[in-house]
C-alpha cells in the first residue's frame, strides 16, 4: 500500500509541474512527467527520446527542462541559508560549524522515506530462497501420482517468479530516487562553492588555488552522488543478516553459524579495505592536484617553455609527480582487485565451510538443503560484503570531501563595503583617505591625502586602488568611499561570450551611448573588421582578441557603467602611443570629463592634464599636488618630470597585454587605428582574422575493437594478454565446477537414500555410505582452485590496466609537448586540461575497475546459461529470441545513452570554464557588483548539466527495468520448464539451474550496464589516444648538430622568408629579406598586426617558416629545435613564472652555480627582494608567480637571459607594463650585459629603441624601411616619422634629438664591414651564406 501512495504523491506533484511548464514559452522539451506514476513498469515517456536518439545524434535542445525543485538556485539557496544559520549558531556556541549536520537537516526527510523500498526489496530477497527450497523438495520426494504436491509445486514456482518481478520494480524505484537526492546535494554544494569563490578575500585566495577549487567542483562533490546510494544499507544489512541466520538455523541447524562467522569476519576485512582505500584516495588526490596544477602551468606557459627549450625539465617534473601518483594508484588498484576477488570467492568459502562442518557432524546432505543454503547466503552476501562496506567506504570518503569543502567555505570573505548614496543625499561622490595602512602580506602603504575628490587624480601604484576597491584590507586609518565605483583592471579580463556582452556587462543596451563608448575607446574600427562585429565570440581567456583590443574592451566595460567614481588601473600601457592618446583625450578626459577618475599610469606625458598627482614610493606617499606644484616642489619625482622636457619617456607602439596566451597570433591584432590618421595607409587591405576556437571533437558512433587492442597493448605484450585470458576462463570453470560437484554429491546421496540398505549374504543389514574423504577432498580442491585463480586473474588484470593508463598518459604528455604552438591557440586551456584531469582520472581509477568487473560478470552470465542448458536443453529454444531482443535493446539503448553521457560531459565543461574565468576576473566582477549575475549564469550552466544528468539517471533505469523484466522471463521459463519436464530431471540439477537463474536477476542488467559503462569510458581512452597522435613539430635534436660554441658572432640573415601560423592560415610575413649584423642593436617597430611578433616566431620556428634563416651561416631549419632555441635568449612579453622554487625558475636544468644565480639577480636588482623571502632562493612561488608584481616577474625573465649568456637576445615588448624606473633599469642592463650580443627589440616605447644601431619598420608583414633611426626620420612620409610625431610634440622633439645624438656619436665602420652601403650588405650576405 505504502509504495502506491508514494507513487501517487509523486505523480500529483509532477502533474502540477507539467502545467507550469505548459505556460513557459521557451522551454526546451517539457517533461511528460504526469505519466510518472507508471514509472516502475515502463518509464514509457522516455520512448520518444530514444526514438530520436536512435535516428540522429542528440543535441542540447532534445533534453527535458530541469524540474523546478532540482534547480541550482533553489537548492543552493536552501542549503546556504541553513549553513549561514549554522555558522552563526556555531559562533555563538564557540564551536566549529558542522557542514554534515546542515546536509542531514536539509535532506533527511525525503531520503528516510526511501528506506522503505530497501526494506521491501531485502525482505523479498530472503523469502525467495524459501520458495526455491520447497520447489526442490518436490523433486526430491517426486511421486508421479501425487497431484496435490504438483499443484503446490506450481504455487511455489509462481512465488519464485513473482518475487523476481517485484524485485525488479522496487530496486529501480529506490535507485532512481536516491540518485536524484544525491544529485540535489551535489548541485546545492556546487552553488555554495561558487558563491563562496566570488567573495574570497585576497588573503584567502593565497590559501587556495584555482586548481583546488576546480577539484572541489569536479571530484569532491561527486561523492554525494555515490554515498546516497548505499547509505540505507547501514541499517538494512544487519537486519537482513539476522533474518537469514534464523532461516538457516531452521534449515541446517548450528553449522550455519560457521558460515555466518566467515561472513562476519569478511565484513571488517572489507571495511578495512575501504579504510585503506580512502587513505590512498586522499594521498592520490593531493598528487593529482599537484600534477594538474603543473599541467595547467605547462599549458598556459607553453610558448615560453618552447622558446626557452625547457620541455625536458618540465617533462621530468610531470613524470616524477605522475610516477608517485601511479604507485599510489597501483596500490589502491591491487586493494580493489583483492576486494573484488574476495567478493567473488566469499560465497564459495562460506558454502564450503558450512557444508564441511555439516557433513563432519554426521548429517547427510540433500539438494534442497544445499540450494536453499546457497541462495540464502547469496541473498545476504551482496548486502553484507558489498553494500554495507561500500556504505562505510563511501561515508568515510564523503566525510573527507565534506571536510575539504567546509575548510573552503570557512575561508575569509572580503568585507562588503557600501559605497552607495542614500536616496535623499545628493552629494559629491568622493574618496577620503587618512593615515591608511594596509598589508599585502605585510607591505606597508601609508597615505595621507584628504579627499580624492578632484576630477582626475593620477597615481603610480595599483595598491591604493586595491584598497579603495576593498580588495586590500586596511589595518589603520580611514578610507571612506561615497558613490558607485567602477574599475578597469591592469591585466585586461574578458570572459567567454560576445564582445558586446563583455562591454555591457549586464547593463541595458542604449545604442547611442554604446556607440559613443565604442568610439571613445577606439573600438569602432575593430568592430568593423571583426567577422561578426561586436557579436564576435571571445574564446577562452579572450584568445580571439589581441592584447590591445582586450585592454580597450576592458576599459569600455568600465566606461559604459554609470558610476560615480572611475578607477582605471593603467589602461594605457597595453596600447600604442596614438591609441593611448586617443583613449586619454576621448575617453578619460572626454566622455568621463565630469566624473572623478583615479588613474594609475606610468606614462608621464599625461600628467599635465591631471588635477592632482600622488607620487607613491615603496608604499609611502612622497608628493602630492598638481603638475606645476610638483615641478616647483623639487621632490624626487620632479627629476622624472624634468627629464621629460629634455628626453621624454615615450610610450611606444601598442603592446599586447600580459594575460597568458592572449597574444596568440599577430594576425588577430587587428589594426587598431582611429579616425585621427586615416591618411596613413595602415595594413587594412588584407586583414587576417584571429584564430577561432575549434569545436571540441565529440566522437560519434561505437568504439571499435581496434581501440580496445590499443588500450590493452599499452599495458602489456601479447603473451601476457593471452595468459590473462586463460586465467579468466580457468577461474570461471573452477567456480561452476565447485557448485556442480555439490549438486552431484547431493544426487548420489539421494540415490543411496532411495535404495539404501543392502542385505549381505550372512543376513546382516549394512547401510552403504559415500566415501567422505573422496567427495570432500575433491570439493576442497575445487574450492582452492576457485580461490587461487580468482585472485590471480583480478590482480593481473589490474596490473595490465593501470600500466596502460601510465603509458598512455606519458605518450599524451610527450605528444602535447612536441606539438606546435598553434594547437594551443585553437584549443582552450580547459579542453587540454580536461584530458589530463577528467579523462586520465577515468583511466586511472574508474576504467580498470569497471573493465574487470564487466569481464567477471560476463563470464558468470555465460556460466549460468551453460548450466541451465545442461539441465534442460530445451531452454535454448526460448533463449534465442530473448538474446535477439536483448541485443537489439542494448544497441537501441546505447545509441541514446552514449549521447546522453557525452552531453553530460560537454555540459559539464562550461561549469568549470565559468568558474575559472570568474576567478581570473574576481576584482572586476566585485567592483561592478556583478556577483549575482555571475552566480545566475553559473546556476544556468548547472541546470543544463542537471538536465543531462537527470536524463542519464532515467535512461539507465529505463534500460535496467526492461533487462530485469527479461531476466524474470528467463527465471519463469526455467522454473515452469523444470516442472513440465519433471520426469527427466534430478533434484540437484533443478536446484543448480534455478539458483543460478535467480542470481541472474541483478547480475545480468549490471553486466550489461557495465559493458555500456566500459564503452562510455572508452571514449576517455579515445580522447587520450587522439592526443597521443597530434602532429609534432620538428625534432628537438637532429643528426646535424651545430658546433658547441655556435653562434659565436650572432649574425642573423633572413633570406626570402614567408611565415604563416598554419598551413591554411594567412601569410603574416611576406618574402622578407633582412640581415642583422653581429653585436648590432636593432629596434623593430610597426603597427599592430605588422608582423613584429611573427618575426620572432619565425626565428624560433614556432611554426616552420618558408625560405631560409641563417644564424652565423648555419641554416636554422636543418638543426634540432632545442639546439636552435637554447642558443637564443628571449625576454617575452608576458613574463611567465612557474610554481616551484626561485632557483628552478631561473635555472631548471641546474646548470649554474649559486654564485651565478645571485649575480644574475644582483644585476637585475632583485637580489634584495629574493633575500627577503623566507627561504631565499628555495622559496616556492605562489601559483604562476602571483606574489611578484608584473615588473618583478619581467626582471626574473631578464635574469634568465643574463644567465644564458647567449649571443642573440630578443626582447618582445618586454617593458610594456613596467614603470619608467624599472624600464630604465632593464635598458641599462641590456646595454651593459649584452654589449657583445645581437639584440632585437620589438619596441613599445620609442625612446627605448631610438638609439638603436638600426630600426626595422614593418608594415603588413613586409619591410617598409630598415636603416638608422636618424636616417629614417629624414623621410617625412615614412611610417617611423609618423609614429614619432604621434607621441606628442615634446616627445617627438626629444626623440629626434636622441636619434641625432646617437647618429653622431657612432663610429662609422668602413663600408666593407657592411656599412649602410648596399654593396656592403651584400658582401656580408654572401659570406654569411
Automatic annotation (TrEMBL):
Domain called ABC transporter: residue spans: 409-643, 1052-1285
UniProt membrane topology term: Multi-pass membrane protein
Keyword set, alphabetical order: ATP-binding, Cell membrane, Chloride, Chloride channel, Endoplasmic reticulum, Endosome, Glycoprotein, Ion channel, Ion transport, Isomerase, Lipid transport, Membrane, Nucleotide-binding, Phosphoprotein, Repeat, Translocase, Transmembrane, Transmembrane helix, Transport
TM segment ranges: 29-50, 111-133, 153-176, 229-250, 257-277, 340-361, 718-737, 778-802, 874-893, 959-982, 988-1008
Cofactor(s) needed for function: Mg(2+)
Region listing for Disordered, in residue ranges: 642-690
Pfam families assigned: ABC_membrane, ABC_tran
Entry's Gene Ontology molecular function annotations: ABC-type glutathione S-conjugate transporter activity; ABC-type xenobiotic transporter activity; ATP binding; ATP hydrolysis activity; intracellularly ATP-gated chloride channel activity
Any GO BP annotation: lipid transport
Sequence ranges assigned to domain ABC transmembrane type-1 in this UniProt record: 112-396, 722-1016
PROSITE patterns: ABC_TM1F, ABC_TRANSPORTER_1, ABC_TRANSPORTER_2
Predominant place of localization: membrane
Enzyme Commission code: 5.6.1.6, 7.6.2.2, 7.6.2.3
GO cellular component: apical plasma membrane; basolateral plasma membrane; chloride channel complex; early endosome membrane; endoplasmic reticulum membrane; recycling endosome membrane
Record-stated family: Belongs to the ABC transporter superfamily. ABCC family. CFTR transporter (TC 3.A.1.202) subfamily.
Assembly description: Interacts (via PDZ-binding motif) with SNX27 (via PDZ domain); this interaction accelerates MRP4 internalization.
Protein known as: Cystic fibrosis transmembrane conductance regulator
Amino acid at each position: 500500500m505504502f509504495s502506491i501512495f508514494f507513487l501517487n504523491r509523486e505523480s500529483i506533484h509532477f502533474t502540477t509541474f507539467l502545467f507550469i511548464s505548459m505556460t513557459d514559452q521557451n522551454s526546451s522539451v517539457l517533461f511528460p512527467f504526469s505519466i510518472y506514476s507508471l514509472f516502475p513498469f515502463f518509464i514509457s515517456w522516455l520512448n520518444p527520446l530514444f526514438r530520436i536518439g536512435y535516428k540522429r545524434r542528440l543535441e542540447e535542445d532534445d533534453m527535458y527542462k530541469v524540474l523546478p525543485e532540482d534547480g541550482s538556485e533553489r537548492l543552493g539557496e536552501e542549503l546556504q541559508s541553513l549553513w549561514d544559520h549554522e555558522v552563526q549558531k556555531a559562533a555563538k556556541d564557540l564551536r566549529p560549524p558542522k557542514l554534515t549536520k546542515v546536509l542531514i537537516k536539509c535532506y533527511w526527510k525525503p531520503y528516510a522515506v526511501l528506506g522503505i523500498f530497501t526494506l521491501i526489496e531485502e525482505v523479498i530477497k530472503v523469502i525467495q530462497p524459501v520458495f526455491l527450497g520447497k520447489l526442490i523438495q518436490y523433486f526430491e520426494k517426486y511421486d508421479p501420482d501425487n497431484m496435490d504436491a504438483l499443484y503446490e509445486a506450481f504455487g511455489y514456482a509462481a512465488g519464485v517468479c513473482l518475487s523476481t518481478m517485484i524485485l525488479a520494480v522496487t530496486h529501480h524505484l529506490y535507485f532512481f530516487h536516491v540518485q536524484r537526492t544525491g544529485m540535489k546535494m551535489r548541485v546545492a554544494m556546487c552553488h555554495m562553492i561558487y558563491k563562496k569563490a566570488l567573495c574570497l578575500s585576497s588573503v584567502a585566495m593565497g590559501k587556495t588555488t584555482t586548481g583546488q577549487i576546480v577539484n572541489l567542483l569536479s571530484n569532491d562533490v561527486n561523492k554525494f552522488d555515490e554515498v546516497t546510494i548505499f547509505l540505507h544499507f547501514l541499517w538494512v544489512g544487519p537486519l537482513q543478516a539476522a533474518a537469514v541466520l534464523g532461516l538457516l538455523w531452521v534449515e541446517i541447524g548450528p553449522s550455519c553459524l560457521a558460515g555466518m562467522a566467515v561472513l562476519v569476519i569478511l565484513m571488517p576485512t572489507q571495511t578495512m579495505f575501504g579504510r585503506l582505500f580512502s587513505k590512498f584516495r586522499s594521498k592520490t588526490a593531493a598528487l593529482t592536484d599537484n600534477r594538474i596544477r603543473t599541467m595547467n602551468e605547462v599549458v598556459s606557459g607553453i610558448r615560453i617553455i618552447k622558446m626557452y627549450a625547457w620541455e625536458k625539465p618540465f617533462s621530468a617534473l610531470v613524470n616524477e609527480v605522475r610516477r608517485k601518483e601511479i604507485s599510489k594508484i597501483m596500490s589502491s588498484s591491487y586493494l580493489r582487485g583483492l576486494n573484488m576477488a574476495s567478493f567473488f570467492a566469499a560465497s564459495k568459502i562460506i558454502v564450503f565451510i558450512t557444508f564441511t562442518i555439516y557433513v563432519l557432524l554426521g548429517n547427510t546432505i540433500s539438494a534442497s538443503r544445499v540450494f536453499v543454503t546457497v541462495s540464502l547466503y547469496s541473498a545476504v552476501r551482496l548486502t553484507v560484503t558489498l553494500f554495507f562496506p561500500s556504505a562505510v567506504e563511501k561515508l568515510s570518503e564523503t566525510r573527507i570531501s565534506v571536510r575539504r569543502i567546509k575548510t573552503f567555505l570557512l575561508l575569509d570573505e572580503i568585507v562588503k563595503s557600501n559605497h552607495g548614496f542614500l536616496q535623499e543625499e545628493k552629494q559629491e561622490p568622493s574618496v577620503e583617505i587618512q593615515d591608511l595602512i594596509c598589508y599585502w602580506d605585510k607591505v606597508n602603504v601609508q597615505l595621507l591625502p584628504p579627499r580624492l575628490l578632484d576630477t582626475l587624480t593620477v597615481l603610480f601604484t595599483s595598491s591604493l586602488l586595491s584598497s579603495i576597491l576593498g580588495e586590500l584590507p586596511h589595518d589603520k586609518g580611514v578610507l571612506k568611499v561615497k558613490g558607485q565605483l567602477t574599475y578597469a583592471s591592469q591585466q585586461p579580463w574578458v570572459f567567454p561570450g560576445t564582445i558586446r556582452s563583455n562591454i555591457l556587462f549586464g547593463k541595458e543596451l542604449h545604442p547611442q551611448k554604446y556607440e559613443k563608448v565604442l568610439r571613445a575607446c577606439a573600438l569602432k574600427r575593430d568592430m568593423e573588421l571583426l567577422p561578426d562585429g561586436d557579436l564576435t565570440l571571445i574564446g577562452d581567456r579572450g584568445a580571439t582578441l589581441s592584447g590591445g583590443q582586450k585592454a580597450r574592451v576592458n576599459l569600455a566595460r568600465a566606461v559604459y557603467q554609470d558610476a560615480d567614481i572611475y578607477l582605471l588601473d593603467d589602461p594605457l600601457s597595453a596600447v600604442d602611443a596614438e591609441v593611448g592618446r586617443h583613449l586619454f583625450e576621448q575617453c578619460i578626459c572626454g566622455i568621463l570629463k565630469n566624473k572623478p577618475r583615479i588613474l594609475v599610469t606610468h606614462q608621464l606625458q599625461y600628467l599635465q592634464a591631471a588635477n592632482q598627482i600622488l607620487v607613491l614610493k615603496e608604499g609611502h606617499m612622497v608628493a602630492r599636488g598638481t603638475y606645476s606644484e610638483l615641478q616647483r616642489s623639487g621632490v624626487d619625482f620632479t627629476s622624472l618630470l624634468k627629464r621629460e622636457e629634455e628626453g621624454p619617456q615615450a610610450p611606444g607602439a601598442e603592446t599586447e597585454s600580459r594575460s597568458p596566451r592572449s597574444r596568440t597570433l599577430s594576425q588577430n591584432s587587428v589594426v587598431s587605428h582611429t579616425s585621427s590618421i586615416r591618411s596613413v595607409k595602415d595594413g587594412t587591405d588584407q586583414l587576417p582574422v584571429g584564430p577561432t576556437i575549434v569545436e571540441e571533437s565529440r566522437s560519434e558512433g561505437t568504439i571499435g575493437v581496434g581501440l580496445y587492442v590499443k588500450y590493452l597493448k599499452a599495458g602489456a605484450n601479447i603473451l601476457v594478454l593471452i595468459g590473462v585470458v586463460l586465467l579468466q576462463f580457468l577461474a570461471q570453470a573452477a567456480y561452476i565446477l565447485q557448485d556442480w560437484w555439490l549438486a552431484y554429491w547431493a544426487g548420489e546421496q539421494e540415490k543411496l537414500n532411495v535404495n539404501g540398505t543392502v542385505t549381505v549374504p550372512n543376513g546382516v543389514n549394512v547401510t552403504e555410505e559415500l566415501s567422505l574423504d573422496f567427495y570432500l577432498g575433491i570439493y576442497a580442491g575445487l574450492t582452492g582452485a576457485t580461490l587461487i585463480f580468482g585472485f590471480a586473474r583480478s590482480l593481473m588484470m589490474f596490473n595490465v590496466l593501470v600500466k596502460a593508463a601510465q603509458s598512455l598518459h606519458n605518450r599524451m604528455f610527450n605528444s602535447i609537448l612536441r606539438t606546435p604552438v598553434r594547437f594551443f591557440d585553437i584549443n582552450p586551456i580547459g579542453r587540454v586540461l580536461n584530458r589530463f584531469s577528467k579523462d586520465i582520472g577515468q583511466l586511472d581509477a574508474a576504467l580498470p575497475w569497471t573493465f574487470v568487473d564487466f569481464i567477471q560478470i560476463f563470464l558468470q552470465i555465460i556460466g549460468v546459461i551453460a548450466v541451465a542448458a545442461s539441465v534442460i536443453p530445451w531452454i535454448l529454444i526460448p533463449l534465442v529470441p530473448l538474446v535477439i531482443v536483448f541485443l537489439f535493446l542494448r544497441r537501441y539503448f546505447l545509441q541514446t545513452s552514449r549521447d546522453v553521457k557525452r552531453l553530460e560531459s560537454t555540459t559539464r565543461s562550461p561549469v568549470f570554464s565559468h568558474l575559472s574565468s570568474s576567478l581570473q576576473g574576481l576584482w572586476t566582477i566585485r567592483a561592478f557588483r556583478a556577483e549575482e549575475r555571475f552566480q545566475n549564469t553559473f546556476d544556468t550552466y548547472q541546470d543544463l548539466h542537471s538536465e543531462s544528468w537527470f536524463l542519464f539517471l532515467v535512461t539507465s533505469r529505463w534500460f535496467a527495468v526492461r533487462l530485469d523484466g527479461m531476466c524474470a522471463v528467463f527465471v519463469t521459463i526455467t522454473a515452469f520448464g523444470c516442472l513440465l519436464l519433471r520426469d527427466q530431471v534430478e533434484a540437484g540439477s533443478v536446484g543448480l539451474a534455478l539458483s543460478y537463474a535467480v542470481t541472474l536477476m541483478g547480475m545480468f542488467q549490471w553486466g550489461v550496464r557495465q559493458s555500456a559503462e566500459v564503452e562510455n569510458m572508452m571514449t576517455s581512452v579515445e580522447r587520450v589516444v587522439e592526443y597521443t597522435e597530434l602532429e609534432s613539430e620538428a625534432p628537438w635534436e637532429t643528426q646535424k648538430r651545430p658546433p658547441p660554441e655556435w653562434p659565436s658572432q650572432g649574425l642573423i640573415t633572413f633570406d626570402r622568408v614567408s611565415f604563416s601560423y598554419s598551413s591554411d592560415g594567412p601569410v603574416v610575413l611576406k618574402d622578407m629579406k633582412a640581415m642583422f649584423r653581429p653585436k648590432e642593436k636593432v629596434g623593430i617597430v610597426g603597427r599592430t598586426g605588422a608582423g613584429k611578433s611573427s618575426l620572432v616566431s619565425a626565428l624560433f620556428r614556432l611554426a616552420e617558416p618558408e625560405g631560409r634563416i641563417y644564424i652565423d651561416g648555419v641554416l636554422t631549419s636543418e638543426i634540432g629545435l632545442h639546439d636552435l632555441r637554447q642558443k637564443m635568449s628571449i625576454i617575452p612579453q608576458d613574463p611567465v613564472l612557474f610554481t616551484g622554487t626561485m632557483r628552478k625558475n631561473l635555472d631548471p636544468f641546474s646548470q649554474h652555480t649559486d654564485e651565478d644565480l645571485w649575480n644574475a639577480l644582483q644585476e637585475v636588482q632583485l637580489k634584495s627582494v629574493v633575500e627577503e623571502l623566507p627561504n631565499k632562493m628555495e622559496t616556492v612561488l605562489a601559483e604562476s608567480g602571483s606574489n611578484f608584481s608584473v615588473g618583478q616577474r619581467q626582471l626574473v625573465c631578464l635574469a634568465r637571459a643574463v644567465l644564458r649568456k647567449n649571443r642573440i637576445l630578443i626582447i618582445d615588448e618586454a617593458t610594456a607594463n613596467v614603470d619608467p624606473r624599472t624600464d630604465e633599469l632593464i635598458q641599462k642592463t641590456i646595454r651593459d650585459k649584452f654589449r657583445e650580443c645581437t639584440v632585437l627589440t620589438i619596441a613599445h616605447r620609442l625612446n627605448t629603441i631610438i638609439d638603436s644601431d638600426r630600426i626595422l619598420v614593418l608594415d603588413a608583414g613586409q619591410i617598409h624601411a630598415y636603416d638608422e633611426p636618424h636616417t629614417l626620420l629624414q623621410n617625412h612620409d615614412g611610417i617611423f616619422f609618423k609614429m614619432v610625431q604621434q607621441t606628442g610634440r615634446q616627445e617627438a622633439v626629444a626623440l629626434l634629438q636622441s636619434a641625432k645624438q646617437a647618429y653622431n656619436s657612432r663610429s662609422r665602420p668602413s663600408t666593407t664591414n657592411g656599412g649602410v652601403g648596399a654593396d656592403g650588405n651584400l658582401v656580408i650576405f654572401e659570406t654569411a651564406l
